[in-house]
C-alpha cells in the first residue's frame, strides 16, 4: 500500500492529471475543436463526451485502441458492450468481405436473415417471432409499440435509472427528449412501488420494460425475487413484460433471463449481435408479434437497413460460430473473477470502492454509501474524472462513469494489467479520493 501522507489534495491532483492529458493529446484537442464547429458539443453520441475533451481514436486491433496522438490503450470500454469481439476478428472480417462481394443492399430478402433469426430464437425461446432493427433503441421502441398495439392500452411502466435508448432514458426520471408515451416510473428492485402504480393505473398499462442489470444506472442488478414478483404481477393483469437484454444478453447463451430463470413476454437485443455492426432486434410470443404480420393484415414495420446484408452475415457468424453458449459462460465467470479482484483493491488501500454489475459488464464507484437503488449513486464527478484520467495516463481505457466491459480478445495478462494499474492509481491517489468523499 502506497503512503498517502504527503499526497496532493483533490484539486491539485485533478489539475495535474488534466494538464498532463492536454499536453499528451494535442491532436485530439484540435480534432475536438474542429468537431465543435459543425456538431453540437463536438460529438454525435453523448456517452463519448468527457472533459477537458474526448480522445479521438484512429485504430483498433484485438483488445487495444490507438488514439490520434499515437497512444495505445487496453480497451475496457468495449464500445459500451457492443465491442464483444474486439476490433479485428478474422472470422468476422471474412463474413463481411463475403457479403460485400455479393452486394450490400439488394432491395429484397437476403439469404442470411431467416437463418440468423433462427439462431437467435434458439438462444432466446421466448422470441418465437423476431423482427430486426438498426439499434437497441429502435428495438425497445418497437417492442413498446408492439405491446401497445397488442393490448389496446397506451401507458408504459419503466424504472428510475433505466436506459432503453437515446429517446427512452429515465435516469433521474423523465427527460424532455424522451418519447412522449404516458409513462409511469417505479423504483427498481422495489415491488411495492410497482404494485402501487399497477393498483392505480394497471388497466391502462400496456407493458413494463426493465433491464436485468442497469447499464446507465450504475450496474445495479435485479433481485431474482423482485423479478419473480414482477412476472406474477404483470401476468395477472395482462401486461406485457419486456426484458431489455441489449446489454445483458451476453451473460449466458440465453442471456440474463436464462441465468435467472425468469421468462418475459418479449425480449430486446442489440449491441454485439451484429458482429460489431449496427443491429437491434425485438421478439416475443406469436400472439404479440403477429401485429406486424402483413400476410395477416398486420401493420407495416419499415427500415431500409433492418436486414442489411453486412449485419446479417456478420451476426450469423458472430453468434453461431464465435459467441457460443460455452464462450458466454466462460466470459461471465472471467468477469466475476475480475470484479472480485478489483473490489479487493479498495479494501487494501482504505478506499470505498464498489464494483457493481454482472459478469463481463461492471461499473466502478468511489463512494461510502451502499448502493441498492439508483438514488444511492453519489460518486462525486471529480472522482470519476480522477479515476478515468489516471487510468488513461497508464494506458487503460474505461468509460468516464467507471464503466468497464470485457471483450473476447483480452487475455489473462490484460486483466492482470488492469488490476495492477488500478492498484497503482488507488495507492497513489488515496488521499485525494478520501478528500473528495468528505461530507458525502
Describe this structure in words.
This protein is of the alpha/beta class. It has 13 helices and 16 strands. The protein has a 7-stranded mixed beta sheet, sandwiched between helices. A 4-stranded mixed beta sheet has the order 1-2-3-15. The longest helix is centred in the C-terminal third of the chain and has 25 residues. The protein is globular and about 70 Å long.
Core attributes:
440 residues; alpha/beta; seven-stranded mixed beta sheet; four-stranded mixed beta sheet; 16 strands; 40% helix; disordered N terminus
Short description:
By secondary structure, the chain is α/β, with parallel strands linked by helices.
DSSP strand count: 16
Low-pLDDT sequence parts: 1-6
In round numbers, the mean pLDDT is 95
Determine the number of helices (DSSP H or I, runs of at least 4 residues).
13
Strand content: 15-25%
**Topology pattern, helix = H, strand = E:** HHEEEHHEHEEEEHEHEHEEHHHEEHEEH
Structural class: alpha/beta
Helical fraction equals: 40-55%
Within the largest sheet, what's the order of strands? 4-12-11-10-9-5-8
Shape, per Cα inertia axes:
globular
Q: Sheet with the most strands?
A: 7 strands, mixed
Tell me the radius of gyration.
22 Å
